[in-house]
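User: Can you help me understand a structure? I only have the sequence.
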Amino acid sequence: MEQLTVTERDLRRMLDVVDHQRWGGAGQEFPREVLRALRELIPADDITFQVSRPHDRVFIGLEELTTLPLETEDEWDDLFWQLYWRHKTCSRPQQTGDHESVWMLSDYLSSRQLVNSEEGLWDRMHGVHSEIAVPFPEHDGEDRRLLLFRTDGPGFSERERLMLQLLRPHLVDIRRDLERRRAGIPDLTSRQWELLRLVAAGHSNTQIARRLFVAEGTVRKHLENIYERLGVNSRTAAVATAFPVANTA
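Assistant: Let's start by predicting it. Here is the structure, written out as tokens:
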């Protein structure tokens, strides 16, 4: 029986994957440095972050590191959407309502079925024999998922599934952080937002400390962290950066 223990070394390598989010991702659907680090943790011939609107049969975005011989985009799209709704191997989140559980191709197809069935057609075209998918929360009809493929060697293991399941909340946060930065929304904690709203309302550090039941020094420290995150050096600049609409009305 397969050993599912995640070692301390595994955990350190998983933390290293998450740490790569600091290298940005501007203009990308998902930070490529994170994808590269993830592919080192869980070897794959292709790792893809895919954004689509299944009901409209369109792809919105794709970030990919691959060695697979893909067909032209139109041919790929046509085949994908022909198979998508007919088989749970593709549309599992939509058919089950489960946008959290990591799943594998082998959950639905045996090696024999992969070779002979319609469900395995796309995989056979590209020499794929093993696939694992990490679903992200659905948003406004958009499906987001992280996919890893192998063309040879052993299939993805239950231990690798466990590591991806443990990493999933952090990967979701990385995508959300990227979306916030695209929208120009400052990346602050809920406590920092609470404090900054009090600053915007004209409260002094002493008043804020009383309202939040903390020491005045704690308020100053929070403000220092806020300034650093926003790239400013004053209360006025922090409020203007965090609440631009309110300050231009």
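Now, to help you interpret it: DSSP finds twelve helices and five strands in the chain. The first strand starts at residue 46 and ends at 53. Let me know which part you'd like to focus on.
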